[in-house]
Amino acid sequence: MKLCKNCGHENVEESKFCENCGSVLETSETETSVNKVTQEVPEDLAENEEVLANKTSESTPAEEASSPETVETTEPETADQVEADVTVTPTETAKESGEDMQDSKAINSQEQSNQETPTPAKKGSLSKKQITIGAVVVIILVALFGGYKYGSSIYTSENQIDAFVQAITDKDSKKVVQMMTTDDDHLDLTEKNVKPLIKYFTENKKALAEMKKDMKKNLRTYNLEIKKSGKKFLVFDDYKVEVYPVYPEVSTNQKGTIISVNDEKYTTTKEDSFDEELGPFVPGVYKFSAASEKLTESSESNEKTYNLFNSEDTEIDLTFSVMIIPIESNIKDAKILVDGKEAGKLKDGEGTVGPLVWHDGLTIQLTSGEGKDQITTEEYEVEEWEYTEDSEDDYPVSLDFDVVDMYKLEIAIDSFYSDIQDAVIESNKYDKESLGEYFKDGTKNASFKAIDEYITSSREKNKKKEFDGVWFYQEITDMAPLEKDQYKIDYEVTYFINGDEDNVTYKYTGVKVTAFTDENGKLNFEFIDLGDGGKIVK
Q1: pLDDT of 142-162, one tens digit each?
Q2: By residue range, what is the domain housing residue 112?
Q3: What's 281's domain CATH number?
Q4: Which of 124, 166, 284, 483 has its CA 20 to 30 A from that of 239?
């Protein structure tokens, strides 16, 4: 039996290869030599081989020790020796020839064996499939290592902060939302909700740079902070911006006030005293406004803008400065304008307007007349501290028109009736032309003829002792400006007749006059007409 040195399997003696592992089985040098001679020496040399073998077995140790060169170079001494040499030489030649043939056959036999039997793999060698698999594994490992190194350089807190700042600069609200997180369950991070944050930082570059610098120092800034948020691809640290929402405290003082945030209705107050916390809001810039349904249409809403980031920024005061303003004027009837819109009317030269919500630039003004006859007063700008509920000031705002003073006009009309009082006495001179100067176009004025007839009639009665004279009391009840220096007035005049207990009062309506001030500052006037001509007042 042949024992395989590779796997230890026992094989039959004739086996050249191991039946178990296919390894070549080793044979002894003698056996190999004999087999080669037996198989490869030609039949015609068999006898010589046998003689050579016998001779070899009979040789003495001394002869075996002699080298071939010595035999070949030694001169033959006897014929027997020469004959012996001659006999040996063909044998050796045949042996050498046989060995060459044997080697050639052995090579041919080996090649034939290689073609018939697959060559077994040597111990420790790899197949082509194993090499391919190994190469793929190496490539994967290299790719994973490179990806890890690249990811480690990308997914850092510094890079996430830079990306967050860039998203704000680009006004990319979607990306900003993706990079943010919060622990507040009531805060929804949406593209709409982060716009106040983006608006603030895009309008304040210095604040954006400060926020970036502080976040890289792991500081909480502008209610923002960079924090780890799990793993990215199960390997790299994931970072997000933690948002700490703001809950502003809003206060106002009017029931039914509509509170809006960034022009969107947020809530409506149910009591006059309102002080509640609103939110949550993402930090940023916000516009808060309040409009009360109780206030007049001419009132504007209370509107303020706040930057909401820290706790000290969270008090929103939307309290209204409500005021009622008293007004007086030198014209009895006029319209009250608040910021150019009608908000009330004067009666007998007095009136009030309100309640009004104060705002910067609140103005009060009066107007009278229509179209080309319309006149206005100057605007009065109301201060915040005036006429509020807490103010002790209750004096009226005086808004006078640039017109003649009504009471001065009364005095001027008194002069006219005083001249009539003198003219009705027959003993006094009646200067018709002088009295006619109180009328436009003088004595030719139609209204003057009625006055002239009264004076002439009274003088006749006085001459007959039927009339002892008269004195007058008049009062302007209404005055409205018309065109430049022209007015429409209503007035009443009472006739007190001497010796007669029955007095007569006439009311003149729609009387048109022209009033002006002369160079000496004296007020002058003239009647354009006497309106309805006067009606007796019972």
Answers
A1: 887 777 666 666 678 899 999
A2: 41-116
A3: 2.60.40
A4: 284
